[in-house]
């Protein structure tokens, strides 16, 4: 039949660009049924949901025969009040990766360029190519930090969007206020700069700017935030951007209708109201981060200073072997073969296993 209707019999024609798009690789889950295993591969929050947040989610679940509030009204109101911004400046989506995709779709298509550091969040190349736009990857510096001068030099008249991931995933490094302002001064006003602050709540360095302060002064800056990390709602999929109009309005147009469930919306509102307790947990994770970082340095590793809920070990060719050693010891980490591993700060026991593994691995291989 395919021969007679003029097709080659190979099935529906898909866009050629899909062939070159890397598949998003989620962090591997911890093994079940085996020895104790800790998942340190996805930068999640190791704490279970707070009782109040759980109650809100369960109450919303009772009416999941209905569509959610498409405008995420209660959540948008709550966020607008918290940040002192107009509700029209807030756009929500299915996780901040969903909002990142909306941002690319709103700004860049075939022939356009999207600039970001590399290595950085692995969704950037995917969402850029899905949009038909071209990725311009600017290597991190030797210290694993964004090379903002090189990123500014990479701007052309085809550039439509620039991601600045602060802190950067997977290195945990940051750009500070003065260098970011200097960079932004070089970006043309018709190019959108997205400050991806998925790990904002883990930052303790006062020189690292709050993207919201920058957005207020600059109409071409949007800030991306998520409930997945510090707020512990990764499984519910809700993130948001704060941006001036018309960017925020464009995000509402490129959103998947009803993409944020009512369970997610109500849990996010409850999380904001339980912020003191949640941020207390973040404080504990930051203490653990210091302990893990110091432990690694003491063992002799060179580790970039991390401002997020993970550490980055540049292991090069030893990356895959090290990840296997971790798994054998009972922790799952995130390897980037040939480059390094990203290890989330998790439960104390998991962090301890990781530190014991690094110690043994170092003695055996260095
Ligand atoms: C830098 C960065 N941005 C965005 C995201 C997306 O998170 P979510 O879609 O869960 O909000 C992640 C997740 O790992 C990330 O590391």
Automatic annotation (TrEMBL):
Function field: Aminotransferase that catalyzes the conversion of aromatic amino acids and 2-oxoglutarate into corresponding aromatic oxo acids and L-glutamate.
Subunit structure: Homodimer.
Taxon lineage: Bacteria, Bacillati, Actinomycetota, Actinomycetes, Kitasatosporales
Name recorded for this polypeptide: Aromatic amino acid aminotransferase
Entry EC no(s): 2.6.1.57
Stretches assigned to the Aminotransferase class I/classII large domain: 39-354
Family: Belongs to the class-II pyridoxal-phosphate-dependent aminotransferase family.
Gene3D superfamilies: Aspartate Aminotransferase, domain 1, Type I PLP-dependent aspartate aminotransferase-like (Major domain)
Enzyme type, top EC level: transferase
InterPro entries, per database record: Aminotrans_II_pyridoxalP_BS, Aminotransferase_I/II_large, ArAT, HisP_aminotrans, HistidinolP_aminotransfase, PyrdxlP-dep_Trfase, PyrdxlP-dep_Trfase_major, PyrdxlP-dep_Trfase_small
Modified residues (N6-(pyridoxal phosphate)lysine): 229
